[in-house]
Amino acid sequence: MKLKTLLRPLLSIIFGIIGTFIVKVIVPPEIFTISGNYLLILAIAAFGILGFILPELVELAGRAGTMAVATQIVRHLPSAAAGGLLRSSLPFRKRRPGKAFASRGKYANPLILDTSALIDGRLFDIVKTGFIYGTFLVIPSVIAELHKLADSKDEIRRARGRRGLEVLSAMQAERQVKVEVLSAEPRDAAVDDKLVKLAKKIGAKIITVDYNLNKVAVVSGVSVLNINELANAVKTAVLPHERLKIQINAVGREKNQGVGYLADGTMVVVEGGANLIGKTVEVVVHRILQTAAGKMIFARRANAN
């Protein structure tokens, strides 16, 4: 760098003098009579700039010549030796396809989809609201499970598999959603083990409604987004002594109990409501029970003593 810094001014002066000499020798005197000294000044500037950038031009020419010679040498080498030489000279090596199924940091907020989450059908509606966002990843085993269900002879299983494939297709078609179907996956036998292993490798979360997968993932230190837990969390908040209007739809387990549901699906058990099936009555909440299956509300008729 220091040598270039010293050479540039010197080369500019030398090339400027050369330019002056060339112009005076080549250009007829009549041109100088017409243009005056402008032509001479232009020549000095042009040759001076050429001298200033000459070190870079020489360096580029040297590199180009070296590459050309190296290419000719490699072409005349045997194929095996040439392949080894090229591989050793490259700054990186291309990954073998299928060896690495994902890499940490490659995906923004990676979310791995379980088969149960796609079959459930609620995922796409949740994603469209924007509450869940990121890169949704699907491993080949999940696709295989959906296809197996969709081809099942059992009508219910076939419907579930087709719904899962439809949800996945709808997510892929949505412009605001990024879905990537991976070409490779961990080699574990069970699909749940593959999901957990992949999630740990790339720092992803698993989206599921499977209770057992949820527990295994949490024990393994993997974050889980359970759609059922989300649904329970956003259900209508009801407080003791609050009045509700409920349609009694069925008889409860205990004697003289009637059962109805809120708009979000929360079960309401009404004492003394067994003989009110099909009727809409006003009830007063007196107890709320949170269970693993969800929230249950116990109430009495509003006009009952």
TrEMBL record:
Annotated PANTHER family: AAA FAMILY ATPASE, MEMBRANE PROTEIN
Keywords: Hydrolase, Magnesium, Membrane, Nuclease, Transmembrane, Transmembrane helix
GO MF assignments: hydrolase activity; nuclease activity
Domain of life from the UniProt record: Bacteria
A Pfam family assignment: TRAM
Segments forming a coiled coil: none
InterPro entries: Nucleic_acid_metab_PIN/TRAM (IPR052041), PIN-like_dom_sf (IPR029060), PIN_dom (IPR002716), TRAM_dom (IPR002792)
The TRAM domain, residue ranges: 237-298
Transmembrane regions: 6-27, 39-58
CC cofactor: Mg(2+)
Name of the protein in its database record: TRAM domain-containing protein
